[in-house]
Design goal:
71% of the residues lie in helices and 5% in strands. It is mainly alpha-helical. The chain has one domain. α1 packs across α4.
Length: 111
């Protein structure tokens, strides 16, 4: 998964860069050449740094939402945080997706 996921993400960016043509996501030679022209070392560093920032945003966001943990109720003895889950889906997840996809697009266009 660690090897396939970054290449899969670059495949989606390649498809978007080529006008949304579905076949562009499967031009692996073109995608690997693009990563190679930018540099595999740069690609790995970008992937690790982006993943760390992604995780940091998630942890901070969940910490902030957990501080509002008093918005919960008990259902058959299980504490369910409906508002926490809803806020997570409506606030944290969109920001994470925006960050990740913007970072991928900027990396793809870097050379």
């Amino acid at each position: 998964m660690v090897i396939i996921l970054p290449i899969l993400q670059m495949a989606v960016v390649n498809m978007a860069y080529n006008g949304g043509k579905f076949g562009a996501a499967f031009r692996f030679h073109e995608i690997l050449n693009k990563i190679g022209s930018i540099g595999w070392k740069n690609f790995i560093v970008w992937y690790v740094v982006t993943g760390f920032i992604y995780l940091l945003i998630y942890v901070v966001g969940m910490f902030v939402l957990k501080s509002f943990g008093f918005f919960s109720y008990h259902y058959f003895g299980i504490k369910i945080n409906i508002i926490l889950e809803l806020l997570s889906l409506l606030i944290i997840t969109p920001f994470l997706f925006i960050y990740l996809h913007r970072a991928m697009a900027l990396f793809y266009r870097s050379k």
